[in-house]
From TrEMBL:
Domain of life: Bacteria
Top EC group: hydrolase
MF-aspect GO terms: serine-type endopeptidase activity
Protein name: Peptidase S9
Hydrolase listed as a keyword: yes
Amino acid sequence: MKKLLYGAIIISGLISIVACTNQTLQSKSAKVLSTELKAVSPSLISRQVLLGNPSRYQGRISPDGNKMSFRAPVEGVMNLWVAELGDIANAKPMTQDTGRGIPTHFWSLDSRQIFFTQDKNGDENWHLYRIDIDSGEIADLTPYDGVQAAQMKQSEHHPGVVIVGMNDRDPKWHDIYSVNVATGERTLLEQNDGYGYYELDNDLTIRLAVKSAADGSNQVFSRSNNKWNLWFSIPFSDVQTTTILGFDNENRGIYMLDTRERNTAALVYLPIGQDTVEVIASDEKVDVSNVLFSPRDHRPLAYALNYIRPVWYAIDDTFTKKISQLNSQLSGGSQVLAQTLDNSLWTVFTDNSNQSPVYKVFNTIEGTLNDLFITQPEIDTLPLSTMHGVVIPSRDNLDLVSYLSLPLTSDPNQDGIAEHASPMVLLVHGGPWARDEFGFGAMPQWLTNRGYSVLQVNFRGSTGFGKDFLNAGNKEWAGAMHDDLIDAKNWAVSRGITTTDEVAIMGGSYGGYATLTGLTFTPDAFKCGVDIVGPSNLETLLNSIPPYWESFRQIFYQAIGDPNTEEGLALLKSRSPITHVDKIVKPLLIGQGANDPRVKQAESDQIVDAMKERDIPVTYVLYPDEGHGFNKPENNLSFFAVTEAFLGACLGGRIEPIGDDFSNSSIEVIHGADFIPGLAEHLSTINND
């Protein structure tokens, strides 16, 4: 069952600013000049190539194994395409969207329909659409304004039906409906009066309900005699690492990822009504992830462990050889994204760091792994950097699994050892309850090509490394979580990767908050910062969360701070960058979507206003048709064109001219265009045109 992810937020002085403007461009730092003398710089790769649309993406084989679907551009907008399996050259577009594109899709189990979700300008009120493969007809199955579709489930035993949660009755809670795929007619199955989500069995019967308690724990209820009865509780310390995966074939028990009574998440089986779990798979170092089930009899077949890179392990004895065959043909990261109903074909996403990701087909009968398509074939001949997994110790002896990417000029052997220092970008992931992983990343490749080292850190609070590591981030926003980032920066300096005065901090969502934290709490640690949709005020952030995150509210309060208590409110204020805005002395670039439902525009507005009141320079870029991040390729390219000029002025890296990267973009530079060399002039030219 696809659950709604309620908590993913993936959450003094003018002299320093002036030093990072035209003067910096005219006389680069000695370190950068030294780098250019020691190695011939690779060719400048266009932003359009690295950060624009892939040729094809999100491949899926249909459940009957006859067709394949994927997302690909139609006149620059990502749309859905379908082809006969193995005949991609004759694929045809099934949608003709001209706006933000189609973000995600999946097949009906009878292979007659494709479902996709779409919101309006980033508001995250997702609608569920279906496409009839034969006729091409498209229908909105949730045609209600301001309503979010969530928690979708199908069953092979009930063709033509999809279960959908909709919050049109009460925006806080998703009622559960059975929707006729052909007609769109919906039938209410369950009115939701306060449950975070429901679990349906394999016959699409609602069997379990999960509710958040006042202490942040989750209570799991089972239904009998048409009444909900408490079955078991999940303590707050386990809530974000314990989840129900689904029912067994007989609907007599559930499979879970479970950290209760242990640190790392184990795959377990729990019969309905009982308390003692059967542990199926576990690891002492990392959580079990990506569990693969048999499509028809629902037994677990394999699972992945992802420390530096994911590795697959067989559960079912009949799959031991098959998983060995799969692993032997993988060299980087991998995910199994879809399976045919007979389980003979798996859609596998494979991902090395220095070449285009490839969608492949694993034939479980023959043990072969063959290409389905390459996402960006044009980049495979370009000078790309290699990502290296490193483990950095924190000051209190936690292991921070991190990823280091070095420019070819400082690491010509691509062995992860810097021959000389280069400016560095500390790239911070969002969430914070998420993690960085090994693989190709457009942003690290773009930054290393411009001459920067890139360090991505799984700081405490990141997921995948056990509940102790995740919970070590509780009440540590701008505290120990930020200490981890500083420790990682110092580690890079100690190894000659960069120098202490040549590091920028950059990220989105929580990463944007980390950027603001870096420039306020440690004002001398970073030379500049790029904040993308990051909260500046934790009190207003929590007071403005979307109504459908109500069941997650206590998680926020327990993990960040409770604004309803004197102690919690004091903590939120003290850990908010807006409180310390007068400490900012380094250049700051902010990007924001006007329709962001998670981190409202007010989060960026208020810190920009505070900086303007104090005459602290800041550049503020706003997109009126975006939400939590920039989905339109034109907007994405325009923002990173601005970011490239900003970083070039600050760190001295290479710059591709903005050119026509603002074309068809909704970019609005609300304040501070003059602080980035050439930006005001470029905007003036566009406005005059």
